[in-house]
Amino acid sequence: MSNKLTHEEQEALVISDDPEHPANLISELCREFYKLGWVTGTGGGISIRQGENVYLAPSGVQKERIKPEHIFVLPFAQSSVPKPGSKRDFLRIPSKKGLSESQCTPLFWNAFTMREAGACIHTHSQHAVMLTLLHPRDAQSFKISHQEMIKGVRIGGVGKTLSFFNTLEIPIIDNTAVEEDLTESMAAAMEKYPDAPAILVRRHGVYVWGNTWEQAKTQSECLDYLFEIAVKMLLAKLPLVGDN
Amino acid sequence: MSNKLTHEEQEALVISDDPEHPANLISELCREFYKLGWVTGTGGGISIRQGENVYLAPSGVQKERIKPEHIFVLPFAQSSVPKPGSKRDFLRIPSKKGLSESQCTPLFWNAFTMREAGACIHTHSQHAVMLTLLHPRDAQSFKISHQEMIKGVRIGGVGKTLSFFNTLEIPIIDNTAVEEDLTESMAAAMEKYPDAPAILVRRHGVYVWGNTWEQAKTQSECLDYLFEIAVKMLLAKLPLVGDN
Amino acid sequence: MSNKLTHEEQEALVISDDPEHPANLISELCREFYKLGWVTGTGGGISIRQGENVYLAPSGVQKERIKPEHIFVLPFAQSSVPKPGSKRDFLRIPSKKGLSESQCTPLFWNAFTMREAGACIHTHSQHAVMLTLLHPRDAQSFKISHQEMIKGVRIGGVGKTLSFFNTLEIPIIDNTAVEEDLTESMAAAMEKYPDAPAILVRRHGVYVWGNTWEQAKTQSECLDYLFEIAVKMLLAKLPLVGDN
Amino acid sequence: MSNKLTHEEQEALVISDDPEHPANLISELCREFYKLGWVTGTGGGISIRQGENVYLAPSGVQKERIKPEHIFVLPFAQSSVPKPGSKRDFLRIPSKKGLSESQCTPLFWNAFTMREAGACIHTHSQHAVMLTLLHPRDAQSFKISHQEMIKGVRIGGVGKTLSFFNTLEIPIIDNTAVEEDLTESMAAAMEKYPDAPAILVRRHGVYVWGNTWEQAKTQSECLDYLFEIAVKMLLAKLPLVGDN
């Protein structure tokens, strides 16, 4: 760890009276996501990039009980990409014993570097997982159109909002044994589908990003709504695309 | 903007210790509606008309995080109908940068002018949307009878309450690319179905109104209950009308 | 109204620091029941009998917003049974304009007089209503066995708890246009099924009672659980009785 | 009762300012579990073993209203196994009249003695019960694989976490009339399936344990998620094992 900050400087990175400080937001939003069923059983989470700093929740902890002092802070500029096995630079590591940064770190980085996202949310929502299960094993993507909630989703997650008549398409990638091993296939899907605002992971969940935490959150809500109604439509044998 | 009020007079329109002040109610009710799944992803909302003032939430923001100072106030008497492309008179515009009034404004106005409603609620409830999806493409309305919850709904949304033996009928209109473009078709449906307490919008949601915010809210709850049970009944192949 | 109490004496009947005072309990429990979906749209509620006093919520109001000062108090001993058209004696009528006592009053009285219940809960739970809809039109009762949650239900609602191997049976009566008109048929069903802990009302909801508010509440929860799982079992074509 | 502690020493066992004290945790967690639908109608609960002390909630009470002073404390070392009919040693019995310790006591003890667990959770989750109902009557266990949430579950509930490619197997035992009578069959299933992190009880619910309360809780969440999605998959005729 190449951290040169004093203990006081490190603490100042996460302790703030401002409810919109990333360390406070991550704690609050994880509590909200827990209520939505997105991050039960320590799964899922959110990372926020503010300027040159990236704020990360710890791995494998109860997400609804995170406190600001549990937050990791990394410089966005890393000496190497924070992929599996690579070295990672930290600005702050929580003093609480046994915490390690989110296993989703390199996946969040995909959103930050490839889409210049300001925040990335990962959920284990059952709607996302059931949707992948209801797709054929070899389906490459999920498509839906003619839904008002599509209008809350941005092209590529960070561009202009979609229209009611647009078809939203989200790639589905296979899950891997280790979360970090999704890094390459997620990046490949993001390159192949530049307009996609999210990546579905079969039998696992979804990654959603946005320019800001607000946009990442509201797009996560719109997409989760669409995943849920798509599951209902598939079970009722209604077509997802078109206005029948 | 023909606003002649001072900044202090404008602020006084929305800052109040009274929890039943429209600006406080809109903030509180939007938080409640969020928990019900009615206004996720910035969708939906509520407008309250009190005397000659109309209170509106901003467009495209997280509805569960609205504060009273984010509320727009318009005179009910407008120099022209606040339809797409028309000028709108304001009494107060929030000082926070980037806020614009709800895109549902002309639709709320339909309820205020055609039904003399005191409040109008718009939700993206999945029960409403699934109900429209389970109706044939050319269905003009949704009908249900013999449900206790029908008794909580008023004729035309503002008249006497329905009886258990009445058949409730709610028109279904097609969605449009831009929310304001629903204005004419919603008005036409309200004219054709004078007894209807709400308008369903296919693949989008529902508009519900009442004499007061309490009546708009309780009718929204009764209708959402009926939409939900109607979806369950249709999936179980039970008839919606009659007492079989 | 034969009320001889002074205004101060009347207020003392409902204003208390004790969270277990019936007027406080009714307000709190209605908020809880709202979250469970039992009393949306002004429907449903709870009445508590404490000694010779009966505490009642108002009719047609938002149940999750009831305050202790909105509570009616009646003497349990009435000059005539508080049935439709009959006179009712009050100890306290809320001073807030426009409130009238719950339309369920004579139905709650059935539980108080026929079962010596200390509390009676009425819900519009969709699980109860769907269950009645999934029963044949001429079914007289709902039966279920071999469910752990049956053990939380008492014989007749006020006797010994049932065993896992007992078959729980709850009569289903037809709904009527006016709630009070259910009085006779509910009483007849309670006489015919002396062991039943509740009465289901087709296309309407359920009445559940107990010796105390705690027993009425926990039995309402057990029964609602059983209604919900019974609906799921019927839709999955699983038999409700027996251990297949 | 072989209790030699003074009243003050007994109270000191459960009254603490530390939110992580077992008596505070049991109260808080039962409120949380109630919101999840795991402990409605007085069912279910959690026991925590801390060093040589075991903390137990009372039997047959509203689990969401438990206070620290309602908690029983037993020495982990008992003069005999706390099975049906056996004597039990207590360190503290609540002074509130009518409370008796959880009927699950010997089942919790199974987890403490056979797995050296630090906490054991029992829920009546409908997902667990529906899952047992959707299995053939003679099925001995539930199996699932290829789900990300499997990675939150530990071998035997207390060992290493499972991999995405592992098949999770949980035995299903028959329910009995009296909860304590499950003791032997639960122990037998735990011996036969040493890797199982939980025991499903047909038509009843599930027992889940872990090294700590945090692990018992997060594993209960992961398993409940898996039970829920398994029910959805069975209803949609999707295989639970394999990656089709």
UniProtKB/TrEMBL annotation, chains A, B, C, D:
The keyword Transcription does not apply. Its EC number is 4.2.1.109. It catalyses: 5-(methylsulfanyl)-D-ribulose 1-phosphate = 5-methylsulfanyl-2,3-dioxopentyl phosphate + H2O. Binds 1 zinc ion per subunit. Substrate binds at C104. It comes from the Eukaryota. Zn(2+) binds at H122, H124, H204. SUPFAM superfamilies: AraD/HMP-PK domain-like (SSF53639). Belongs to the aldolase class II family. MtnB subfamily. Catalyzes the dehydration of methylthioribulose-1-phosphate (MTRu-1-P) into 2,3-diketo-5-methylthiopentyl-1-phosphate (DK-MTP-1-P). PANTHER family: METHYLTHIORIBULOSE-1-PHOSPHATE DEHYDRATASE (PTHR10640:SF7). This is Methylthioribulose-1-phosphate dehydratase. It comes from Kwoniella shivajii.
